[in-house]
Amino acid sequence: MPLEHSIANAYIETIRNSEHFVYIENQFFITATSKEQKPIENLIGSAIVERIVRAARNGTKYQMMVNIPAIPGFAGDLKADESLGTRAIMEFQYNSINRGGYSIMEKIAQEGIDPMEYIRFYNLRNYDRINSSQAMQQVEQQAGVSYEDARRGHDQQYAHIVDSQQYGDDYGSQSSGANNAFDRYQEAAQDVRHQPGASKLAAGRWDSVAECYMLGGEDIRNVPWDGDAQSELDAFVSEELYIHSKLLIADDRVVICGSANLNDRSQLGSHDSEIAVLIEDPQEIDSYMAGQPWRAKKFAASLRREIFRKHIGLLPPQDMENPNANFHPVGDPNVYDWGSREDHAVADPLAPSFQNLWKTTAANNTAAFRRVFHPVPDDQVRSWKEYDQYFERFNKPEEADKKDKDLKKPSTWKVGHVVAEEFSPGEQGLREVKEVLSRIKGSIVEMPLLFLREEDIAKEGLGLNALTEVVYT
Question: What is the pTM for the complete model shown?
Fold first, then answer.
């Protein structure tokens, strides 16, 4: 019986027919360039190679940009046994991108073409500050409940989480009345916020500092904190932004979106059930592509521009107290500031000015996150030994005490938090951290294509073999 694989057909044909530019944002990136690239079967990778080689041969400007999660699964210690599935997916992705002999970049390079001139891969990452300030301590004391208990109460009351094995006592059922942990915490928070002389922190102004790397946001170096330098240093935390979208935009004219990942499970038609739509908006607008006038489609162009501006920090932070039409469900037209300075910055995805802005922002962000947080994956980590030095000892300090481990025990090892050893102690160290964080704009970072390149990331065994590969591809 014939298989329904029109989504794969749409991806392949759209890439082959693209004239100048393709942007892909997907949860996974597992694809083949030829039938020899077993066990992967979908040939979206082949279409990518074919289109880039054609552009290089014809001397035409062409660019493909791919954005996927840094870790395509649950974050944690990648060396752990329970991370085999994540490592397997990562290995298949690297073999699709730049390793293994049949990858996209290797195939392009075999034609005498520099693949980095035509295709780049990126991830997303952010940082914030856990507001465990004196104001929070005051609220906890007045409410008689901890923030954690209040959070659990919120989950039980509004998210319908009532698993007693998970939470134990009832923190948030409606029947609890005055004993409801969430309500008690909220009442105390309102009292503290409205007390005379309450700080901006107590008022909730700086519950998050995410605005600091968005357009018009406050400089992180100017944001106040109730407490000493060490407590603020400990409050900074970073994590990957997990991309779950399945999106392709070609030439600012065609959009493919839906539920289909870029892997065999979604594309072959014999595994997961998926749905996708190909959108060609009839409304055209005047735009530019590679410096030349270009008739773009309004929907595709505005979607791509808004996404790009978000990733490089050229959108203002959303204020939930002042919602606009973009907060509303389908039915209200979205608003977009056509012709603004920021819109002009991203209007032509092939313009040297935009390419420089995007690549420089990604490089600067990557360097800043590396310095402050030591996240993995990272290009400086090419073996498990380097993984131990760069990350593992901060995750498992007991590793520093084991024999045959040339590791200095760290001063702090909270995963995702500031690596204190990189900075001076006290107030000076805090100033140094904020100076580095102030360089971050948006959330785009470079995908580390050299990560663990000296290792077999996912060794075959009981968990990964010819019978189980289908689970990960």
Answer: 0.88
